[in-house]
Amino acid sequence: MSRVLRTFREMLGLMSRGDFSHHLDEKLTEAIAALENCPADKCKAEITVKITLDYELGRIDVKGEAKSKLPETAKFMKTPFWAVDGLLSVEHPSQIDMFATRAVGGRAASGDIDDDDVHAEFGAETA
């Protein structure tokens, strides 16, 4: 008595003497690797399996095709910059003034304070 295939999985395993099933395994492995190496927080891979059944004089020829669409692994995330005076800046123009150097005790806080200023402010005498 001939062997009768009762499930789709049995047919897939026998197509091209098992090579088609191995090919699908490879596509799945590639897709998982591409997703794990994706630089973004969210990625998508797609595997499309197409089974074509051709009938002629009582015989059914089954042909399988598999295509995959993988995420781009060399994709980089965007980086925001702002145009300031015709150049690029990493600081938002409205926030630049928030962190500007302010005068402290009548002197600029730019590091131009000498030892005499420190001693005078803390009541110490200079040598």
Structure description:
A hairpin with a 2-residue loop joins strand 5 and strand 6 (107-108). Helices cover 25% and strands 25% of the residues. The protein is rod-shaped. The model has no long low-confidence stretch (mean pLDDT 80). The protein has helices at 8-14, 19-36, 115-121; strands at 46-56, 59-69, 82-84, 87-89, 103-104, 107-108. It is α+β, with helices and mostly antiparallel strands and 127 residues long. The chain has two domains: 8-69, no CATH class; 82-121, no CATH class. The chain has three helices and six strands; from the N terminus they run H-H-E-E-E-E-E-E-H. Strands 1-2 form a two-stranded antiparallel ribbon. A two-stranded antiparallel ribbon has the order 3-4. The relative contact order is 0.09.
Secondary structure: elements and pairs:
Elements: H1 8-14, H2 19-36, E1 46-56, E2 59-69, E3 82-84, E4 87-89, E5 103-104, E6 107-108, H3 115-121
Antiparallel strand pairs: 1-2, 3-4, 5-6
